[in-house]
Design brief:
The radius of gyration is 12 Å and the shape is globular. It has five helices and no strands. By secondary structure, the protein is mostly helical.
């Protein structure tokens, strides 16, 4: 089961969440085009609020089409 991410904690917690999520991607053979969609389903609390505002500005289709690396960069900036 993927670990949810609530947007709290520092860069170490975020990095550990990235590593765990990437392990799940590998185990499940998750295609690149589905990674952001998959990850968005794990957001909770602050992270979910951030994602929803991001989706509103881009649309869901555009937001889900962004690559995993681009999403990681946005999350690190946030």
């Amino acid at each position: 089961k993927p670990k949810s991410y609530n947007g709290t904690g520092r860069i170490i917690a975020l990095s550990q969440w990235f590593e765990k999520t990437e392990s799940i991607f590998e185990i499940c053979s998750c295609p690149e085009g589905r990674k952001v969609n998959f990850v968005a389903c794990t957001f909770a609390d602050r992270a979910l609020t951030w994602w929803n505002s991001h989706v509103k500005s881009l649309t869901l289709i555009v937001a889900n089409a962004m690559g995993w690396e681009a999403l990681k960069e946005l999350m690190i900036e946030e």
